[in-house]
């Protein structure tokens, strides 16, 4: 029952064409990395959202035909009738919880590489496909190709209806869509009725929407997903230009507008670059142009912001991809007044990185994601313990707190001892870096839950050595002592120690923020390649005379390409005047001058003057305590290391490790691990 009546509007039903959504919570199409290859995982993931109260639950891009093969990304498929049963099962599971099921029919156009089908890639005109590293050109579609495409789209819509979907999408967004390619002058150079004026370029999209109405519109709502603004400098689809004109042109043809911005890196922007609700300025015009309901996104996690979006007439539905991954039960928690139990998305894009690799989603906040079917993990429930054990957790960082929460929910008696004066381990420091404040939600969420529980004791400034651990007499011990940055320069490219490092005051991220602000020239050496070096550079650039950032790889912050941040990181560093050096390995430092060489050839470069050197290379587990426990006969069999104390990784990996270890303790021999096994036909 809704406890806060200010939030009532979020739980109103809304009509979409011939169907009615039970509330305004709309889980928009997003890939899960399961796709057609792992249908059970895909169903399990989406059913959880329906159970959690999302009024509409959507499938990701669903390829309509073999000439839209987006592999290596395992998307959904409705290529032929053999795909219908899997979709029908998904729809049944979503309907079981009272939600509507939506499917986003898509043709990747110039972004579909057709790796596995070997068919030509289609575009409105000939030209390089939208994957610059891949040397293939798109074929300009003939009138017959266009006819075939319309037929494929119509047939896929027919199959979607047969599967039982309530809402069927046409997809013209994110530059991953043939329909979007036709709209864009930079790709569409046609001189026939499908090229030239915007009216002509939008013709195919209009025809497809009309085909869908004719084919399935009696029972199914027709939705259009459209990027009203593309950030590319050579795109003229802007929210105050052609993007708006497309909405005006098609205004009431779809039953629902699902609007966003393009490219995908801007739509799925991280909290480092954009706050909650960041798309409002781009999409707010849409409701003035159409009388049909509008769904939009913006990493919404605050109920007040959601209500404001509805009351101010910006949106009719609160769309969410990432917030629905981080907390599938967000709607139910709002309804039940459990606002402080929402696992708010932190905007880190680890989920997106999974998609970039074409593997099932991982999430920093929600360790149960992608494990709903495979391991039978539920984000809100754990098996109840038959007997309440006394469990000691040493370390109050992401893995320690997640482990504590999972075991406390099961009914065990938990004690968490953190040696520092602050909860959070590495997250306490990292969330203080420029742009990363919302990362502390990982700690906030867990601490808030733990503090409400009577079977949990939390202690700060409580360093424990072996003797104290033995005296404590716990039934079981989890060591979550984290990791430290290496001080010897060993990283991912340079594997040997830099001997001079020990002679001079080389800093590492562990020395921040306690060190006095560095005012002279600071060089940051990145042989890790995630966010740390660039965030430190960004932070220090405000106070220091000169910042150099050296990367051992040919690009800056290389791994952040998977979180869609790399280009914006580079742009921001250049704006701040940071000097960027790439493909360079550090050889030595004498306290004043850095000697370096080319990463590939080993050829020495001109030395670089620098008063300070910050080394962001590898990390090492803090292993002293776990070694002592292992060497002691009394504790050898009653302890486990978790998180970075096992081996350093991302914060997401630390949370998953804490959760996984707790589940292992709870489930023991009863743990489930199912596999999706392909069927053999020959
Ligand atoms: Fe949000 Fe990060 Fe989880 Fe993605 S991985 S849903 S961005 S918390």
Estimate what percentage of residues fall within beta strands.
Answer: 15-25%
Main beta-sheet strand count, sense and barrel state: 8 strands, parallel, barrel
DSSP helix count? 22
Indicate the overall shape. Answer: globular
The helix/strand class is: alpha/beta
Provide the list of bound ligands, each named once.
iron/sulfur cluster
Give me the count of strands. Answer: 28
Low-confidence stretches: none
Describe the structure.
With 682 residues, this protein is α/β, with parallel strands linked by helices. The chain is 29% helix and 18% strand. The protein contains 22 helices and 28 strands. The strands form 7 sheets. The chain has an 8-stranded parallel β-barrel with strand order 3-4-6-10-11-12-13-14, surrounded by 6 helices. The protein has a 5-stranded parallel beta sheet with strand order 17-16-15-18-28, sandwiched between helices. Helix 15 runs parallel beside helix 17 (441-451). Iron/sulfur cluster binds next to helix 12 and helix 14.
Summarize the structure.
By secondary structure, the chain is α/β, with parallel strands linked by helices. Residues 322, 325-326, 345-351, 363-365 line the site of iron/sulfur cluster.
